[in-house]
Amino acid sequence: MPPGIATPTPVPTLELVQVSDTHLLAEAQGALLGLETRDSLHYVVELIRQTRPHLDLVLATGDLSQDGSVASYEHLRRQLGPLAAPMRWCPGNHDEREAMQQVAADTQLLAPVTDLGNWRIIVLDSQAPGEVSGYLAPTQLQLLEQALAEAPDRYALICMHHHPVAVGSRWMDDIGLRNAEALFEVLDRHPQVRALVWGHVHQEFDQKRKGARLLASPSTCVQFEPGQENFQLAMKAPGYRWLQLHADGQLDTGVLRVTGIEFSIDQNPEGY
After folding, report:
1. Confidence of residue 2 (pLDDT cuts 50, 70, 90)
2. Where would I find the Calcineurin-like phosphoesterase domain in this sequence (predicted)?
3. pTM over 0.90
């Protein structure tokens, strides 16, 4: 480095975690398919604290509540609070927008665009009111187009609830994102997109499409068995996804699950 020219300050790697499908209820002992969801989330949060002590952002990608109650979202804020990092939420098919907005008032929890280091994180709302499947409204596609067009020099991570590609389970693929083609038309115009992450499927998924990672994550409560024609739960522990976003646009990621804890579940799909 020639004299008189300052050494550039390196941009640190960003540390993110994704928690998804927490399915909290107003009742403290509220359960989904026999599993108390506040209890299972507690163990996942403790695992995150042990394994990712320094976080830049927490992504909560939908089905945050099972009953859509204000109390469930208030508890989510409290339970994720010990992670001591900014949070971003998006709704899933089980969520109630008005209750989320009430709890998120005067915060950045529902902010759709966040710039961190060399990256832009864009959170989309794929909820289709009254439906289990997802849909990105024209306003959401416009938001995505604008957010990407305004920052071509920032790498992009896109987050939402519903899966835009088949994950190999017929019953789940029937209730994914209905207008995935419109989503990919936008993404394909912007080569800075490095990854797309979602929830909804309660299982791990990792593929590549045109240089971008396509990532699904386990639930913090019950898990779905991959590759099934019909609803079936997996006897796997709750977990979360970690993401490292590097300054050069590279991304490292993986899934960690709770260990040493026994969970009992009810295989009856009517409980979901």
Report:
1. very low
2. 16-203
3. yes
